[in-house]
Amino acid sequence: xxxxxLKAMEKHIEENLDVKHTVMVILLVIIDQVSKLLIxxxxxxVDWNFFAITFVKNTGALWGSFKDxxxxxxxxxxxxxxxxxxxxxxxxxxxxxxxxxxxAGIIGNFADRVFxxxxxxxxxxxxxxxxxxxxxxxxxxxxxLIYFLWNDKPxxxxxxx
Length: 161
Hints:
mainly alpha; three-stranded antiparallel sheet; 5 helices; 3 strands
């Protein structure tokens, strides 16, 4: 059974805090949040042949499925962040940037859900559902992390800094 305590979590964070990756996460969240703020305020509509910028109010997840489930996805985000923190030691050194992409994406969409009550989506490639930077961070992070987890060699789990 996994024992969870705030003291253990604080100790884990102190031992593993990496300034470079912390700054990376903060910058990615800022990029995500500023872009969503601008889209939400100005609601632009730009349409090119293959790409459009359109404001979409997403109260669900997974490109609009599970509508009106904001509170559920707030809790799922909290659990996902906790799971990421718990699994930190299992991440191969070469995959650590992808780990932090996932973390930044979850935080970005979590902030939307908490402060707006919905997620702002706006990137529309027309053959894919509308999404945002946080979604892109999560997808790229998951794909990259899976790749490195599948190709991991035991000696690569040493230092992530």
